[in-house]
Design goal:
Elements lengths: L2 E2 L1 H8 L3 H9 L7 E4 L2 E5 H14 L8
Antiparallel strand pairs: 1-3, 2-3
Length: 65
């Protein structure tokens, strides 16, 4: 298992740390892991799965209500 730093997650998903935090709070992004008093990280496999779902969703037809 590999843990990604905030910088690595930002480079991987191309979102600002603030936007990542908003998505996380809304339950739309993998939850961070508290590694120490002032250090957090994300499980790489969870972030990659999240990205894979975005890739799969782009091929789905858009539904308008």
């Amino acid at each position: 298992m590999r843990i990604l730093s905030k910088r690595q997650v930002k480079e991987l998903v191309l979102y600002s740390p603030q936007h990542i935090a908003r998505l996380e709070k809304a339950g739309q992004f993998p939850k961070r892991v508290q590694l120490g008093p002032s250090r957090v990280g994300w499980v790489e496999d969870e972030v990659l799965d999240w990205l894979q779902k975005r890739l799969e969703a782009r091929d789905e037809p858009v539904r308008h209500s």
